[in-house]
Amino acid sequence: MKPVEQRLCFESQASRIERVREDTDPARPHEQSINKAAIQHATRREAPRRSAAKTWLQAIALTARLEAQPHRLFADIVEDWAQRQPGRPALLSDGQSFTYGELTDRINRYARWARHLGLQEGRTVCLLAPNRPDYLACWLGISSVGGTVALINTRLVGRSLAHCIDVAHADHLILAADCVDAFEGARPHLHRVPQCWSLGTGDRRDDLDAALAAFEPRPLSSAERGDVTIDERALLIYTSGTTGLPKAANVSHRRVLAWGGWFAGLTDASTDDRLYDCLPLHHAVGGVAAPCSMLCAGGSVAIAEKFSAGRFWRDIERFDCTVFQYIGELCRYLLKAPASEQETRHRLRLAVGNGLRRDIWETFANRFAIPQILEFYAATEGNFSLFNVDGKPGAIGRIPPVLAHRFPTSIVKVDADSGSPVRNEAGLCIACAPGETGEAVGRIGKANSDGRPFEGYTDPAETKKKILRDVFAMGDAWFRSGDLMMRDAQGYLHFIDRVGDTFRWKGENVATSEVSDAIADCPGVLDASTYGVAVSGTDGRAGMVALVVDPNFDFGILREHLSCRLPPYAIPAFVRLCPALDTTDTFRKKKQRLISEGFDPSVVGDPLFVRDPATGRYRSIDRAVYARIIEGAIRL
């Protein structure tokens, strides 16, 4: 039983979100019934937006004093809602659904199982399973008694998968039937094989479902929970690994609570909301920020196993969703899909996510009848985030001046070639003026001070690389985001590119994201990835793009399209036609292989082309043409 003061604090927090309705009859996961909540929510969709100030204040109110209850974890929030509305849907999916009461019972079984195995005091278990409601119950339960859960990417294979398991230093691994083959392929590369617990494999040995059934679902006492505080590690979440192997980022209980509270406040989440989540649950946004925002508010989360443009709008309607979580490439895929009746036949009031570029923002909102878009910027390991609560197309956020002390961020000048910060005569970094592009950094400090903690990675060396020292004062420390941004005259921040992706050509900085966005709008282009390649005898790197095209693609149309959209120096000098592009499971392009192979036809099996700067036409590259480029006989 929770102390009375904790209960009162929860009542106050919940009331800031929205009072729970007296009618808590659970709606069936796939019913389309018109009830009191639907009528209220339909009215709410047409209501005027909250002011930016109210949005910020609500988010701050939900996260302001986490340290006042240092032993209150996110599982406690779920349990409190379960006591108030045990029959209301919490997590929904095609194959499995939990009410709040069922979710709390499942969390408690996982917690007791973890205690039985000694998964406490920072010991780690790896979780390798696809998207499903039990995924959240698993890590919420194990982490509530002090264990750390490493959320493993289900798309990894071989050495990459083995690397992620190894760096977690886990004694146990929870393995779903869908992932057995991938794990067996990684097993020979493991330094140490953890004990495996099977979910749905049919293997009676170490059957996790059977093991969980042996434990009671009742809440744990304070003594059983142990001395677990919000500042201890709850999760390991891995970076995407677009360059090199993934890194395991430490995520504390404090950050889980902060992410859930922030997004609940920013999205104005309530018990009437249902969020559609088709992003990977092993990532910070899809697996923590999105579902925890709804669970924080007593709402529901509809979980799809993966994103499908063909099923997206059918699922939105079928689950009766009011909010969905996006990433930018997901929006592009939806825009490229054929029109359907279902794409506007919904009760959506909000789309929340990151990476929605300005060039498709309004087109996306208008075609799919989305009343509001909340764009944000965040990184799993980052110590700061940005939010565009005003809905300005193309901006990733704006920090109100009155809150600048709470969110100390800056943009510093960096050298385009080396990626290193530019320093003045005193050895300090130089802040960018409005309109200038530089790397975004966040001041590192203690919680609720003039900065935010940086929890780093399991690898201290990798942690050290992300800390920039002596930035604006000798001895200070700032987190390096690795992202290039620009602040406009109104104070809105805009994402430009990743440090290292932007390259210098003909004396100008070229942002690969800008070039890819322009090319993606060209008729016949299905996908594009832009990067810079070294050319002997020239300074900087020449632009190159790998394209996936349809049968109607035409180089003449591409030439005319790019001449209208890009300055001459930004138009790619080389084109590679690929059957498909390698991406992470959040659709980020993997470029390292493309960069290393360059435009050498003896290395690249795909068709290659070079642009004639005089005519703008692209011609095929064979070995003779390649030799002339290297010799400088063909000027770029």
Automatic annotation (TrEMBL):
<protein>
    <submittedName>
        <fullName>Fatty-acyl-CoA synthase</fullName>
    </submittedName>
</protein>
<keyword id="KW-0445">Lipid transport</keyword>
<keyword id="KW-1133">Transmembrane helix</keyword>
<dbReference type="GO" id="GO:0004467">
    <property type="term" value="F:long-chain fatty acid-CoA ligase activity"/>
</dbReference>
<keyword id="KW-0576">Peroxisome</keyword>
<dbReference type="InterPro" id="IPR042099">
    <property type="entry name" value="ANL_N_sf"/>
</dbReference>
<keyword id="KW-0436">Ligase</keyword>
<feature type="region of interest" description="Disordered">
    <location>
        <begin position="18"/>
        <end position="46"/>
    </location>
</feature>
<feature type="domain" description="AMP-dependent synthetase/ligase">
    <location>
        <begin position="79"/>
        <end position="424"/>
    </location>
</feature>
<dbReference type="GO" id="GO:0005524">
    <property type="term" value="F:ATP binding"/>
</dbReference>
<keyword id="KW-0067">ATP-binding</keyword>
<dbReference type="Pfam" id="PF00501">
    <property type="entry name" value="AMP-binding"/>
</dbReference>
<keyword id="KW-0813">Transport</keyword>
<dbReference type="GO" id="GO:0044539">
    <property type="term" value="P:long-chain fatty acid import into cell"/>
</dbReference>
<dbReference type="InterPro" id="IPR000873">
    <property type="entry name" value="AMP-dep_synth/lig_dom"/>
</dbReference>
<dbReference type="InterPro" id="IPR045851">
    <property type="entry name" value="AMP-bd_C_sf"/>
</dbReference>
<dbReference type="GO" id="GO:0005886">
    <property type="term" value="C:plasma membrane"/>
</dbReference>
<keyword id="KW-0472">Membrane</keyword>
<dbReference type="InterPro" id="IPR020845">
    <property type="entry name" value="AMP-binding_CS"/>
</dbReference>
<comment type="similarity">
    <text>Belongs to the ATP-dependent AMP-binding enzyme family.</text>
</comment>
<keyword id="KW-1003">Cell membrane</keyword>
<keyword id="KW-0812">Transmembrane</keyword>
<feature type="compositionally biased region" description="Basic and acidic residues">
    <location>
        <begin position="18"/>
        <end position="33"/>
    </location>
</feature>
<dbReference type="GO" id="GO:0005324">
    <property type="term" value="F:long-chain fatty acid transmembrane transporter activity"/>
</dbReference>
<keyword id="KW-0547">Nucleotide-binding</keyword>
